[in-house]
Amino acid sequence: MTHLQKLNLINKTQHGFSKGRSTTSAIISLIENIIDQIDKGQYISALFLDYSKAFDCLGHDLISRKLTSLGITDTANKWFASYLSGRTQVVEVQTMTTKITKIHQSKPLPIQRGVPQGSVLGPVLFVLFVNDFSTHIQDQSTSCVMYADDTTLLIKNHTAEGVCAAATESLNKALKYCKINDLAINPQKTIQINFSKKRDYIPNINNVTVENKVKFLGVILDSNLTWTEQVSSVCKKVASGIYVIRRIKWISNLESAKTAYYSLIETHMRYGLAVWGGSSVGNLNRVL
């Protein structure tokens, strides 16, 4: 990844598994883009794409070709091919008869698609695989923010009808990209949120659910950017953490309670604070 970043081969819209980038940088990029367009008087709509089993669909031959296009050839490419090939899978079923548990296994079959989940290389391979996604999608109306397989399209236009038409076109581009790249988007689970200071109704996209809020990389984003839902979520987590800390302090010592505080309370209060920290005084007082 370091080699690819030095050569600027990793798309700037990708925030996953890249040095200096994280879920926080992805959230900030998304919110800044939305606020910039709202301040310009534009209508803006966000499409939060839902991939169906993204890591399991990728064909190994296509992965190899994608790596070649990034300059990963010869020995390095063969090493990746060797890592993916030669794997098998079985289906295991447990049955119980008269309190006796029996295990039944199918015959091993070769795995010809997908990257190993839970491995270090799995997410990296996926990031490299979808590195060209934004070049197929982005235009004057559409930009995207990506963190591994979490992909959001941002569509802007000066009219409500225009943003709907542009969003429909962008979604069709994404579906077309997925069709030729062994990926599958589930339109029924894809969520659309509209943002604007204007009160004009933005028409819905067919088969796409329109919501007023969505959880994006662990932060709850609402259509009015009030962050009330996010603050409520943080408050619940903090309340649970305080209860645990009180119990720990009662049965243990202060140092153990401090450790629990940093892991159960402060982490939740700090995460995404760069965006939801600008909420109303009333919301912030609820946390404090």
Helical segment count = 12
The neighbouring-strand order within the major sheet is 6-7-1-8-9
Low-pLDDT residue spans: none
Number of strands: 11
What would the average pLDDT be, to the nearest integer?
91
Helix content: 40-55%
| End-to-end separation | 40 Å
The structural domain count equals 2
Domain Reverse transcriptase: 1-221
Protein name: Reverse transcriptase domain-containing protein
InterPro entries: DNA/RNA_pol_sf, RT_dom
Pfam family, one: RVT_1
Short description:
Pfam families: RVT_1 (PF00078). By secondary structure, this protein is of the alpha+beta class.
Layout of helices and strands:
Blueprint: H1 2-6, H2 23-39, E1 43-49, H3 54-57, H4 60-69, H5 74-84, E2 88-89, E3 92-97, E4 100-105, E5 109-110, H6 121-129, H7 133-137, E6 142-147, E7 150-157, H8 160-180, E8 191-195, E9 209-210, E10 213-216, E11 219-222, H9 228-251, H10 254-270, H11 273-276, H12 281-287
Parallel strand pairs: 8-9
Antiparallel strand pairs: 1-7, 1-8, 2-5, 3-4, 6-7, 10-11
Salient structural properties:
single chain; 288 residues; alpha+beta; Alpha-Beta Plaits; 2 domains; five-stranded mixed sheet; two-stranded antiparallel ribbon; DNA/RNA_pol_sf; Reverse transcriptase domain-containing protein; RT_dom
Describe, in plain words, how this protein is organized in 3D.
47% of the residues lie in helices and 18% in strands. By secondary structure, it is α+β, with helices and mostly antiparallel strands. The chain has two domains: 1-66 and 121-223, Alpha-Beta Plaits (2-Layer Sandwich), CATH 3.30.70; 231-285. The longest helix is centred in the last third of the chain and has 24 residues, at 228-251. The chain is globular. The mean pLDDT is 91. This is Reverse transcriptase domain-containing protein. Residues 1-221 form the Reverse transcriptase domain.
